[in-house]
């Protein structure tokens, strides 16, 4: 059962922007609103890393490499989270994964590919 579905990936040039979306159609609303949600990414040959997270209370946390460029947000009514990426560079090239943590249970999406190249 796929609880998280990402979309919005693609090919962009350096300096451009992209917005990723993650929806949770099969997750009940109370689980979604009570969760910590995040975006992770994994580049070829590298470990998966946290990009940004937003807690149940709305507190956000970002990797140093994306601070000031990426913004994570949520829409609880739609059971969606977003990742707005600006001023992108080649180091942002990776598979991006949506993540949800609720009472110790983890949920992962299948990922969406983001490529930054001229």
Please describe the topology of this protein:
Blueprint: E1 5-7, E2 10-12, E3 18-23, H1 29-33, E4 36-42, E5 49-54, E6 60-62, E7 70-75, E8 80-85, E9 94-102, E10 105-108, E11 112-116
Parallel strand pairs: 2-11
Antiparallel strand pairs: 1-3, 3-8, 4-5, 4-9, 5-6, 7-8, 9-10, 9-11
Q: How many H/I helices?
A: 1
Mean pLDDT, to the nearest integer, reads 94
User: Could you list the spans in which at least 5 consecutive residues all have pLDDT below 50?
Assistant: none
Following the backbone from N to C, one meets helices and strands in this order, namely EEEHEEEEEEEE
* Cα-to-Cα separation, first versus last residue: 37 Å
DSSP helix fraction: under 10%
Q: What class do helices, strands and sheet pairing give?
A: mainly beta
Rounded to an integer in angstroms, the radius of gyration calculated over CA atoms is 14 Å
Strands, total number: 11
Strand content: over 45%
The biggest beta sheet is recorded as: 7 strands, mixed
* Shape estimate: globular
Structure description:
The protein has 118 residues and is mainly β. It is built from 1 helix and 11 strands; from the N terminus they run E-E-E-H-E-E-E-E-E-E-E-E. A hairpin with a 6-residue loop joins strand 4 and strand 5. The model has no long low-confidence stretch (mean pLDDT 94).
Quick summary:
This protein is mainly beta. The protein has one helix spanning 29-33, and strands spanning 5-7, 10-12, 18-23, 36-42, 49-54, 60-62, 70-75, 80-85, 94-102, 105-108, 112-116.
